[in-house]
Amino acid sequence: MGKKREEREKEKKSRADPECNLDGEFRSPIRSFQDLSVENIRNALTNSRYLQILLSLTIIGFILRFFNLGYNSLWLDEASTYTFASMSLPGIWEATTGGEFNPPLFYWVEHLMLTFGNNEVILRFVPALLGVLTIPLVYLIGKEFIDRNVGIIAAAAFTFSPFLVFYSQEARAYSMMLFFVALAMVVYLKALKTDALTDWALFGVFSALAFWSHFYGFVIIASLVLYALYVKIGRIREDIRNIKPIALAVVVFSLICLPLIIVTIQLFAKRTAGGPTFGLQGLGLIIQTFNQISGFSDLAMIILFVLFVVGIVQAFIIDRDKGVFLVSLTILTFAISYFLSYRIPMQPRYLIFLSIIFFIGVAISYKPVFSLISNPGVIYGFIALMVLLSAPTLAGYYSGYSKEDWRGFSTELGTMTKTGDYVVVLPGYVLQPLNYYYSNATDGTLLFGVSTADELDKISLQKKNNTVYYIVTGDIMSANPNGDALAWLKEHGKPLVQGNNMVIFTSG
After folding, report:
1. Residues of the chain with pLDDT under 50
2. Which CATH number fits domain 406-506: 3.40.1010, 3.30.465, 3.10.450, 3.40.1130?
3. 196 SS3 class
């Protein structure tokens, strides 16, 4: 069975388009870790276009992810990260078992980062760094899956993607999950070819780290295991012992994640007990995921989706299993997400790992273009296209606030209030970002968090002659879906200041 597969691949390669090799006759002297030396590295960097481009992309990716890293103030979820990271290491685990809907690994890392200080840059440093390191990993995935050209185009898409830049500059676990999924996929693709137990064990380890970073990482990991079973099913039928490598990966993953798996089952039952009060559902989730991964642009989404479809077709032409890989991982992810969106709150950022599959598919579409033009400029043209599609959104991203400006609002609030005034935040849980920047003890005010009209009535009755400042965010629609809190504010308050998804009302 294995020999037949190899013969089919050789036959397809012989019929395939001539390879586009940016390096010409140069052959890298670095074939393994044993070949790493100053001379070989210098030789490779001097003569390999691929390494030169990859190094340039990584440097650019570093600039894009670290530029203005502390510009935006922390928003609700990032302030929540700070809240949990401030706990002790055992306390973070206790919070997870107590109902926090995120695994503890990212919080543990952020806890250690807080020893270096407490500001936006410190909290976002790890996501930004992991976002940069994912760029060369995506190159390796593309190279292992098809060739170096797919790798370099996909790496370019990752470098300039506004979606990935945005979540690399957010103190949440999405960038960490993506990094470990990419790392797992590098060894996974190698393991599919070698069946080496070491590679499968490493896949289990990196997959476990992805799951410890974010619960939704399980979706892509499970999909990869199912695909591996599909590819190896013939050999497994011949001899059941051939399942041993995949089984090893599953066992390694299960052993590392056992405590978290038990907690996950409990949390899932709790989370699905009631319907979602926010997030996207059904087809809307799928469309928005494509839109955001494409750079928050409808035009870019259309162009990249067409290229993605072309890439899938080309993958089937190269090797049917490669086409099945792209299609199955995409469909499985969306099918699971579609179902879950009616049970738990879902957002496109949970599916951030799908950007690997999407951009690999987009990159493969260079092949039919190269078969028509047969010029290395095709590769540079695809890289330039990734830049052009991302540039408008990136320009807007760096020119203004992209998150709620709690820092600015807190400063402005301090200039408006006087001792004895009331500060009321709606919904109550957004006290976290306000507390990060605003000290009611220093300002001499009384601070409350509420979510309903009844709670607002109680505060209004006890305020006496003091002025009340109400800070309202868009989250109030999720926390108070019947709308009585907003109706109360419109009747009893008047808007003073309006910002990015935030409004300050006053009782005066």
Report:
1. 1-6, 9-17
2. 3.40.1010
3. coil
